[in-house]
Specification:
The protein is mainly β. The chain contains 3 helices and 27 strands. About 5% of the residues lie in helices and about 45% in strands. β23 and β24 form a beta hairpin.
Length: about 375
């Protein structure tokens, strides 16, 4: 029996927890498992969340006080929206892969007006699951705009789809693709959890955790990090798989996390990787727009959580942990892959557990930081 602190994206959730578990059991789990050698590592890591950046001209905080902020996107009018996974709540509660987690309507979408320097809730009361303390919650994970009035948001879960029933009526709002209008109206448009339960495209164990989303004319493209599948959702809410990322026997789980539209019109999908989270083993895959087998486009990354293409065709790769999750070190990394393949890390050492990246109309990069912490989340503006 050993003490573990587990953090999950994909087959399970992201969550800080200390408990006892046999080695034989954790070796079968999918998702992320963090094993620090001593609990002091966690304390030191959490302390990093309040570090003051040494180069304010390169890194500027434009929003703070966020609750587990994840993906972010600009609306066509230039406003910045952030998906906040919340901090759970008082229940209903139910067992998860790493222990009890409780539901609460603490998820939200935050609007940041960069011209005025203000931030306010665009939508509140969205589903959220978390353990005690609210760290590394499951909830709204990503947001993407199509046109001036429609934004699409993924609501995660992290578990077997039917386990949503453990959270009562509220559980039905988990593992969903939702829509938000400019007026703040919000509703579910496609039940991705039920699709995984009924169809299970990989043929692997049934598990769902909708994560990245890309809104396009007449459709949305969604990464289910739990189901290991890239999905297309049409205007009527019908779902079809574009690509699957099945597990090869004896290899870590793929755990796709994000999708971006490439300059060539293909979809590019980021990989987090599962246990043992070997540094340098994460890939960016290319999937044809009509669907098909994923092909490795770029390799050699570690625990990718998001990707974004820049105006010049460069690919920006955001790593949740640049040294690997088993180190207990949540120093992240933002890496620019130029069209010629050369790589440059921007502001090495300046990010802690980043969660999402977006290019702004001002030509600057925007990154959510402290993405696994309630109340300490930030949005940073970075000179590319």
């Amino acid at each position: 029996m050993v003490i573990f602190i587990l953090i999950t994206v994909g087959k399970q959730k992201i969550h800080f927890l200390i408990f006892y578990i046999p080695k034989e059991k954790y070796m079968r789990k999918k998702g992320l498992v963090l094993l620090p050698s001593v609990l002091l590592i966690l304390a030191l890591t959490l302390g990093m969340a309040t570090t003051v950046f040494a180069d304010p001209t390169s890194f500027e905080t434009v929003a703070s006080g966020l609750n587990n902020p994840r993906g972010l996107a600009f609306s066509p009018n230039g406003d910045l929206y952030v998906a906040e996974a919340g901090f759970g709540g008082e229940g209903p509660c139910g067992p998860g892969p790493e222990g009890e987690r409780c539901y609460g309507p603490s998820g939200s979408i935050t609007l940041i007006d960069l011209d005025k320097g203000t931030q306010e809730y665009a939508v509140m009361g969205l589903p959220s699951l978390a353990g005690e303390g609210g760290a590394a919650a499951i909830g709204p994970h990503d947001i993407s705009f199509q046109g001036t009035v429609n934004a699409y948001i993924t609501i995660g879960f992290g578990g077997e789809p039917h386990d949503r029933d453990l959270f009562g009526e509220a559980g039905a709002d988990l593992a969903q693709l939702a829509r938000m209008t400019a007026s703040g109206n919000f509703w579910n448009v496609s039940d991705l959890g039920t699709y995984e339960a009924d169809e299970n495209p990989t043929g692997d164990e049934k598990d769902t955790n909708p994560y990245g989303v890309l809104a396009l004319p007449g459709k949305q493209v969604v990464v289910d990090a739990g189901g290991n599948v890239l999905l297309e959702v049409d205007a009527n809410g019908a779902i079809k798989p574009l690509a699957t990322f099945p597990n090869a026997v004896g290899t870590p789980d793929v755990v796709p996390t994000a999708v971006a539209l490439g300059p060539d019109g293909a979809y590019y999908v980021a990989q987090l990787t599962g246990f043992p989270f070997i540094p340098g083993s994460a890939n960016v895959f290319r999937v044809p727009a009509e669907g098909g087998d994923p092909v490795v486009f770029e390799s050699g990354f570690t625990n990718i959580i998001d990707i974004e293409f820049g105006p010049d065709g460069s690919l920006y790769v955001l790593e949740l942990s640049k040294n690997g999750l088993l180190t207990g070190d949540f120093t992240g990394a933002l890496i620019r892959v130029a069209p010629d393949g050369s790589r440059t890390e921007l502001g090495a050492g300046e990010l802690f557990a980043p969660g999402g990246v977006a290019f702004g109309p001002d030509g600057m990069l925007y990154v959510t930081n402290n993405s696994i912490l309630p109340g300490l989340g930030q949005v940073l503006r970075i000179q590319p």
